[in-house]
C-alpha cells in the first residue's frame, strides 16, 4: 500500500490557496497502517489492518486536478474531501466521478469546478477505535444507493483512511472465523467442563450409593443393638424382681428367726423350771429316805435333761442371731444391688432411646442419600446429553 506524505506547512498552504497541482502537494494522505496500529494495540481485532491510504484533498481542488490524481493512481477507489484539521467533509468515489466526466462537454463544464460540488456529503465516518463489528453493522445499515461507497475512518476526528465494501467483507469474514474459533474453543472448554462434571457426578452417585449401603448396615446394627439393649433391660428387670423377692424372703427369714428365738427362750425358761423342779424333787426324795431313792434318781435325770435343754436353747439362740445377722446383711446387699441394677436399667433405657434416635437419624440419612443418588443420576444423564450435543456441535 503506497502513501504520500505532506508537511504541515504544505497542508496549511493547501487550505489557503485552493488551487494548484496535485503533484505540488494538493493531496494529503492518510497515516500509515503501522502508525495506526501502534495507537490501537489491545485485545480483539482492529480495522487498522484493512485501511486503504487514499488522498485527503482540499474542498477547492478542481475536478481536473482530482481527475489527474485518480489517473496517476488507478488503484485508488476514491478521494476524501477534508476541511480544516483534516476532518472529512465529503467523499468522491472514482466510478461515480468518472461517469460524470464521460459526457461530450463534461470537460468544459466540470474540470474547472471544485470537487466539493461533486462530492457526496452524506458520508459514513467512523473512528479507528470503534468495534469492527459495529463498523460493519453501520456500513450495512446505509441506503442501497450509498452501499458501495467507501467508509471513511478517522482517528479522533482526523482522517486516516477508508474501507471499501471488499475490505468490510474481508474483515467480516475474519471476524466470523475468529468468532467460530472462539465458539469452538468455548465448546471445547464446555465439553471439558461437562466431562469433568459427568465424572464428578459419577463419583457422587457412587458415593451416594455407598452411603445408602452403609446406612442400611448401620440401620441393621442399630436395630440389633437396640434389640439387645431391650433384652438386657428385660433381664435387668427380671433380676430386680428376683432380688426384690430375695429381699422379701430375707426379711421373712429374719422375722421367722425372731419367732424361733422367742420359742427357744420359752424352751430355756421351761428347762430352768424343770431344773428347779428336779432339785426340789431330789430334796424331797432325800427326806423320804430309802423309799425316795428311786424318785431321786429320776429327779437327777430330769435335772440333767433340763441342763442339756438350756444348753441347746442357748446354742439355737446364737445360731438364730447369726442367721438374723446374715439375713440382714443379705437384705442390705440385695437392696444395694437392686438400686444399682435399677440405675443400670435406666442407663440401658437411655441407651435404647439413643439407639432409637440414631435409627431415626439413619433413616433420614438414608432418605437424603436416596435423593442425592437420584439427583446425581438425573444430573449425570443431563450432563451426558449436553456432552453429546457439544460433540455434535463440534462435528
From TrEMBL:
Keyword terms of this UniProt record: Transducer
Stretches the record annotates as Disordered: 1-53
Residue span(s) of domain Methyl-accepting transducer: 177-395
SMART domains cross-referenced by the UniProt entry: MA (SM00283)
Pfam families the UniProt entry points to: MCPsignal (PF00015)
Source organism, top-level taxon: Bacteria
Gene3D superfamilies on file: CBS-domain, Methyl-accepting chemotaxis protein
SUPFAM superfamilies: CBS-domain pair (SSF54631), Methyl-accepting chemotaxis protein (MCP) signaling domain (SSF58104)
Compositional bias ranges of the Basic and acidic residues kind: 1-16
InterPro entries: CBS_dom_sf, MCPsignal_dom
Name of the featured protein: Methyl-accepting transducer domain-containing protein
The species this protein was found in: Paenibacillus cookii
Amino acid at each position: 500500500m503506497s502513501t504520500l506524505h505532506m508537511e504541515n506547512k504544505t497542508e496549511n498552504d493547501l487550505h489557503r490557496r485552493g488551487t494548484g497541482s496535485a503533484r505540488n502537494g494538493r493531496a494529503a494522505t492518510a497515516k500509515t497502517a503501522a502508525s495506526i496500529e501502534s495507537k490501537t494495540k489491545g485485545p480483539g481485532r482492529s480495522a487498522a489492518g484493512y485501511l486503504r491510504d487514499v488522498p485527503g484533498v482540499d474542498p477547492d481542488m478542481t475536478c481536473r486536478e482530482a481527475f489527474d490524481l485518480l489517473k496517476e493512481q488507478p488503484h485508488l477507489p476514491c478521494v476524501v474531501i477534508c476541511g480544516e484539521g483534516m476532518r472529512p467533509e465529503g467523499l468522491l468515489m472514482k466510478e461515480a466521478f468518472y461517469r460524470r466526466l464521460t459526457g461530450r462537454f463534461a470537460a468544459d463544464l466540470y474540470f474547472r469546478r471544485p470537487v466539493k460540488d461533486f462530492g457526496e456529503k452524506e458520508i459514513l465516518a467512523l473512528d479507528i477505535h470503534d468495534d469492527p463489528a459495529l463498523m460493519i453493522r453501520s456500513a450495512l445499515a446505509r441506503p442501497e444507493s450509498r452501499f458501495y461507497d467507501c467508509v471513511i475512518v478517522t482517528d479522533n476526528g482526523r482522517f486516516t483512511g477508508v474501507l471499501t465494501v471488499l475490505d468490510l467483507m474481508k474483515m467480516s469474514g475474519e471476524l466470523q472465523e475468529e468468532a467460530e474459533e472462539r465458539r469452538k474453543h468455548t465448546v471445547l472448554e464446555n465439553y471439558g467442563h461437562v466431562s469433568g462434571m459427568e465424572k464428578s457426578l459419577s463419583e457422587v452417585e457412587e458415593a451416594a450409593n455407598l452411603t445408602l449401603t452403609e446406612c442400611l448396615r448401620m440401620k441393621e446394627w442399630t436395630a440389633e443393638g437396640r434389640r439387645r439393649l431391650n433384652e438386657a433391660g428385660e433381664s435387668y428387670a427380671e433380676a430386680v424382681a428376683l432380688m426384690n423377692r430375695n429381699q422379701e424372703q430375707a426379711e421373712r427369714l429374719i422375722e421367722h428367726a425372731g419367732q424361733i428365738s422367742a420359742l427357744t427362750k420359752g424352751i430355756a425358761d421351761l428347762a430352768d423350771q424343770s431344773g428347779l423342779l428336779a432339785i426340789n424333787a431330789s430334796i424331797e426324795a432325800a427326806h423320804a429316805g430309802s423309799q425316795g431313792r428311786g424318785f431321786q434318781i429320776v429327779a437327777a435325770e430330769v435335772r440333767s435333761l433340763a441342763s442339756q435343754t438350756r444348753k441347746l436353747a442357748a446354742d439355737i439362740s446364737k445360731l438364730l442371731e447369726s442367721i438374723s445377722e446374715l439375713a440382714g446383711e443379705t437384705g442390705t446387699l440385695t437392696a444395694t444391688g437392686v438400686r444399682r441394677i435399677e440405675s443400670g436399667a435406666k442407663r440401658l433405657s437411655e441407651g435404647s432411646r439413643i439407639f432409637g434416635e440414631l435409627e431415626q437419624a439413619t433413616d433420614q440419612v438414608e432418605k437424603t442419600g436416596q435423593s442425592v443418588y437420584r439427583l446425581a443420576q438425573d444430573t449425570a444423564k443431563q450432563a451426558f446429553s449436553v456432552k453429546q450435543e457439544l460433540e455434535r456441535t463440534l462435528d
